[in-house]
DNA sequence: CGGATCGTTGATCAACTTCAACGGTCGTGG
DNA sequence: CCACGACCGTTGAAGTTGATCAACGATCCG
């Protein structure tokens, strides 16, 4: 199953199978059940997670007790609170499995050791973060450009299979609107 | 003036003055006047920019002709449309100097050559992008968590000097509210 | 001085939220 | 295998935030 991670890395840089066998020892493989929470707000966020299969959700809880989703991570995506991970500080976020999932987790200490030992991987992570940051620039544009209705249709248009995969209230919490309003929008478009 | 860039790099990785002299040859130094536009929507976005002094703004223009600001870059910040730069595609954004500015610009081709020749710099860029991405996670949280009024006060609370530095309508365009509403908020808090 | 640029004010209006209640479905325990 | 409760989506009414529009004032700069 870790083969998937090897294939992902080799999409961006060249590494040998032998090196990968050493690289993988820096990670923990974890089997998560739906609803397992792996990071809690106010705690340290010492790990970065790579999803082999399943789906993770990063969210926070606001004053009114509502969950707001910052991002999802499916197969081949990384997930962590980047600043908390980088600064070794506490996080405001929860990270939860919303499907049964297999993930690879690396601690900040191990990541440092890993990058010292395999500096090639700096390039891999540079590209990962560059793409991630670029994606949020586009997301920001959409947030500013679109009405809530357009945000919703834009999303299900671009990611129809993922929209199927998660419950509607989670999608609403990610897109920044209420489940009730999603209902209304869907209803409107049906007629 | 490029010394500032040298100092920025050495905050994150160790390099020698001699290497830096070679590194800097991959960049163009540009002197920009206020209102100079260096990237236009629908064009290629082949450059990544580092601000030595002054301030850049990245924005797009929506259907109604209104400018919405994606981000600002002041001293020691990088700015580009990451995905367009990385994929060598066209951008939806404009990049404009909003003060007289000095910047270092590197083309995508030169960046590739630079990183091949000085792989050490992969680490530098990895950290830059990691921090940038982390910052947008927090920004996303604030966007979802706060009312427009809270977004405004949170910003001028965190970056009072920068809020002074730019006109109010640009700040409004960055925070995602109308200049009129900023007026209203400020007025309310005054009484 | 004159025009462009930026901030302000107030009225009107639409988008979206909130709240409360209901109905369907799925999974679990008896 | 059925019944019950939890969970999720839906509906509608009422309320609010914040946008839009138009007009006016102030300031800056050539």
Q: How does this model look, in words?
A:
The structure is a homodimer of 191-residue chains. By secondary structure, chain A is an alpha+beta fold. The first copy, chain A, has helices spanning 3-10, 17-23, 82-87, 108-117, 120-145, 148-158, 160-165, 168-175, 179-190; strands at residues 28-32, 37-39, 47-53, 56-61, 67-73, 78-79, 94-97, 101-107. The model of chain A has no long low-confidence stretch (mean pLDDT 95). Chain A has nine helices and eight strands. Helix content of chain A is 49%, strand content 21%. In chain A, strands 1-8-3-6 form a four-stranded antiparallel β-sheet. Chain A has a domain at 3-118: Jelly Rolls (Sandwich). The longest helix of chain A has 26 residues, at 120-145. Chains A and B meet through strand 5, helix 3 and helix 5 of A and strand 5, helix 3 and helix 5 of B. Chain A binds a DNA duplex (30 and 30 nucleotides) through residues 147-149, 167-169, 177-184, 186-187.
């Amino acid at each position: 199953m870790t083969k998937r991670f090897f294939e992902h890395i080799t999409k961006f840089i060249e590494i040998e199978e032998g090196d990968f066998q050493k690289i993988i020892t820096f990670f923990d493989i974890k089997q998560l059940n739906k609803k397992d929470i792996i990071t809690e707000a106010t705690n340290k966020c010492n790990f970065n997670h790579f999803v082999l299969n399943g789906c993770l959700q990063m969210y926070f809880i606001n004053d009114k007790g509502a969950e707001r989703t910052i991002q999802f991570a499916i197969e081949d995506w990384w997930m962590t609170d980047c600043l908390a991970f980088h600064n070794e500080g506490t996080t405001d976020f929860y990270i939860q499995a919303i499907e049964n999932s297999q993930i690879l987790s690396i601690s900040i200490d191990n990541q440092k050791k890993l990058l010292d030992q395999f500096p090639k991987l700096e390039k891999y992570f540079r590209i990962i973060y560059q793409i991630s940051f670029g994606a949020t620039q586009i997301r920001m544009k959409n947030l500013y450009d679109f009405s809530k209705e357009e945000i919703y249709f834009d999303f299900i248009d671009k990611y129809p299979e993922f929209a199927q995969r998660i419950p509607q209230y989670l999608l609403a919490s990610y897109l920044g609107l209420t489940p009730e309003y999603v209902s209304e929008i869907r209803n409107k478009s049906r007629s």
